[in-house]
Model the fold of this input.
Amino acid sequence: MESQKAVIFDLGNVLVHYDGPGMFTAVANLFNISSNDLIAYCRDFETELGTGQLGGPGFYRQLTDTFGGSATYDTTAAAFCSTQQRNESALAFASSLAARPDVKVGIISNTNAIHADWLRTNLPEFARFSSVILSNDVGLLKPDAAIYQLALSQLGVAPAQALFVDDVAENVVGATAVGLAGLHHTNWQTTRPAIKNWLGG
Done:
């Protein structure tokens, strides 16, 4: 319908609770290294992980080759995902929007294969959303214009009819550069009414 709008959400610290430093600590403890050493190591592979060029098992092999240790892949993956948790109220709100005939809901998330497995398992809400774009599946990372354009294509809406919500300001800027409305999420007390206001109630 002509009046249909789309709200596109980021996942981490928007619809899903995520503690990045805690995650690095949990994984570093498995390999008896400091979290700072692990962060520095992972930074070299950030793009490869985020765009799906490097999958979970491949990254695990690199970790064990570099740092040793006896942790299994499953144990390591569990540590990687240990600080991810559903934000029940946020997911319920997104689902309520998806149930409206005048609104489509989409997802754009910079993630990796290990986190993506957890997300697909723990967020059955994905089935209710009109577009779910995980960076490692499509080989694109925010704030690349192409990832927002892909979402618009999947949602079937013009840029002016879409609102993008992310906790990272740079990603919001990337969306607005393509013509979407942007909302920098800091807390749901302000984000929820802002989304409702943008939708017109």
